Amino acid sequence: MIHKSDLSIRLMSERDYPYMAKWLNNDLVLEFYGPRLTLEQVIAKYGPKLNKEHYVKVCIVEYRGAPIGFI
Question: What CA–CA distance (Å, rounded) separates 65 from 35?
Answer without folding.
Answer: 29
